[in-house]
Every structure is written in C-alpha cells, then in structure tokens.
Design brief:
Keywords: Membrane, Transmembrane, Transmembrane helix. The chain crosses the membrane at residues 12-41. Helix content is 92%, strand content 0%. With 59 residues, the chain is mostly helical. It has one domain (2-58). The chain is elongated and about 50 Å long. It starts with a helix and ends with a helix.
C-alpha cells in the first residue's frame, strides 16, 4: 500500500516537471508545482496529526 502511494507521488511529480518544461508560461507552471507541493504537505500534516493522536491514546 505504501509503495503505491510513493509511486503515485513520483508520477505526479514527473507530470508537474513535464508541465514545467513544456509550458511557455513559467509563472503558471511554478504556481502548479507549488500547489502540488502544498497539497502533499497538507496530507503529510494530517497524517502526522492522526499518528500523534493515536500515540496519545495508546499511552
């Protein structure tokens, strides 16, 4: 399950980098890249919050 999530992230990152190289508008592609990075940071924060709550409940 973790392998599929990791490979999915790499595929999305590769797609973003291709968009970054192809588009004639660098600002637009940078904005798309930043939105993707912020999306994954938000997901990581949610995961860490859930993980932290589970640790507190176990103790």
């Amino acid at each position: 399950m973790n392998d599929s999530k990791i490979s999915k992230k790499y595929v999305i990152f590769i797609i973003f980098s291709i968009i970054f190289l192809v588009t004639p508008y660098p600002l637009l592609s940078i904005a798309i890249l930043l939105s993707g990075i912020l999306y994954y940071l938000d997901k990581i924060c949610d995961y860490l919050k859930k993980d932290g709550k589970n640790k507190w409940e176990k103790e």
